[in-house]
Amino acid sequence: EIRRILNFRNACYFSVQNILFSHLISKNLKIKIYKTIILPFVLYGCTLRGEHRLQRFENRVLRRIFGPMREEDEVWIILHNDKLNLYSPNTVRVIKSMRWAGHVACMDGARGVGWVLVRKPGGKRPLRRPRYRWEDNMKQDQ
Known about the structure:
Layout: H1 2-15, H2 17-21, H3 27-43, H4 51-66, H5 73-83, H6 89-106, H7 112-118, H8 134-141
Helix pairs in contact: 1-3, 3-4
């Protein structure tokens, strides 16, 4: 399934690749395109397993926008964090999931989403390893 998601991400990337290559478009506009078109598509359905792949994908897109920057690793990190006002995809994923958790916590238990967060599952537990729940991932991210 991860490969299928990566193929969709690559399709999104290649659909806007000619825009990212264009010298007529400013870098600020390219960053806005990355934030509004590519990043939400990449983050859709991502899990903790693909963190390294997310980082590689983001590096590939930013290299396409800014060109290779191979002087030092710290130079790229400073440029990435300070000048671009971008967070890594993993940080964006955590921020969005925390925002959603706060939204769900404000809901009452009668609504569907609030009920899923509040309820305690009953019945027998399956024999194998317990499945990860969304709430467990939130606790791990904190």
